[in-house]
Each structure stands twice: as C-alpha cells, then as structure tokens.
C-alpha cells in the first residue's frame, strides 16, 4: 500500500476568501515504511498574507517572489500523489485549498478525493483520544514523537512529523510485539487450548432476573 503524508502552508485560514497555498510538503510511505522520497515546493501565492499567517510560517512575500506558481508544479504534484492514499491532519483544510488551486486551472481537474483515497489523521486522533487536544503538536507529545525542532510551521517538516505520529497512532497489536511469540510459546498455547476443549466440566449458567431483563 502506498501512502502520501501531506501538509500545506497558506496565506490565511480560508480559501473562500482568496487565500492561497505557499508551500506543499509530502512524504511517501509504502507498506507503512517511509521510502525516503519526498515532494516539497515553495510557491508564489500572488497575494498578500493575512495578519498573523506570516508569523506562523516565517515565510514572506519577498522570499516567495520568483518561486514557481501553483500552475507550474501542478502536474508534477499530481504525478507524485497519483494512486496513493493521502494522509492529512484536518484533511478538509488542505484539500479545500488544493482543490481551489486546481479549480483555477480549469474544469479538467476534479477534486482530489476523486483521484486519491484520503485518511484524516485528525479524525483518527479524535476517535482514540476523545475530548483531548489533537493538534499535531499535542499528538507528537502524547505519542512520543520528538518535535522540539519545530519552531515554525513548515509543510515538509510537518508532513515528516505527521508520518511518525500517524504510524504511532495506527500501530496495531501485531506491530508492537503481540505476534512475535516464540514458536515454543505458540505450541504451548495451542496444547493448552486443546486440553481445555477436551474437559467435560459443565459450564456455569447465569440466570438474569426478569426485572433486569425488563
């Protein structure tokens, strides 16, 4: 299974208000293992940052001037993610911005959910840790992922951190050693189950009072 852990940075919080993508970062995983392949591009948004957004990313219009525009990297980006499952923290936010960018290029680009399956790690975190903060920073602290070097938001850095947090969040029993019993232990367990199956001891029967049934 091929997965792409994806993050974006933007000029503001709402694509509906005309905010644009300024950075895309992706990390490739195959069979839940990072391959070392990444995709990262800074983009000229062709618009100003909203108040506060520039401080979050540390990016400036001056730095982004001369960087490629989204149209310049769109096909390269699609080639990188095509056929993969996208893993995104708060997928509605990033997909909203990316779909808006593609919509500017014409009707030949459908929404990304029609091209790729999407796994929202924020929804997974809310299911596992209901009622708790589930931001990327909070998840990293809770799951033991070192994010001490994250002073500013960066799409590739955040995608790398999310990949680690996602693997920890979704690790099953088989991945933490429960399927790693020695052959002797497996054999002993099977023999014990066979002995139990052959016993003739009557099973206890529990009678539930009518009031409890009602």
Structural write-up:
The radius of gyration is 24 Å and the shape is globular. 40% of the residues lie in helices and 17% in strands. The protein has helices at 53-57, 61-64, 70-81, 91-105, 121-128, 136-143, 155-169, 183-197, 210-213, and strands at 2-10, 21-30, 33-42, 85-88, 117-120. α6 (136-143) crosses α7 (155-169). Strands 3-2-1-4-5 form a 5-stranded mixed β-sheet. It has one domain (2-175): Nucleotidyltransferase, domain 5, CATH 3.30.420. β2 and β3 form a beta hairpin. It is of the alpha/beta class and 214 residues long. Mean pLDDT is 86; it is low at 173-186.
List the helices and strands and how they pair.
Layout: E1 2-10, E2 21-30, E3 33-42, H1 53-57, H2 61-64, H3 70-81, E4 85-88, H4 91-105, E5 117-120, H5 121-128, H6 136-143, H7 155-169, H8 183-197, H9 210-213
Parallel strand pairs: 1-4, 4-5
Antiparallel strand pairs: 1-2, 2-3
Strand order of the largest sheet: 3-2-1-4-5
Q: Biggest sheet: strands, sense, closure?
A: 5 strands, mixed
Distance between the termini: 49 Å
Helix-strand pattern:
EEEHHHEHEHHHHH
Tally of helical runs: 9
At the first level of CATH, the class is Alpha Beta
* CATH architecture level-2 label: 2-Layer Sandwich
Taken together, the total number of domains comes to 1
Low-confidence stretches: 173-186
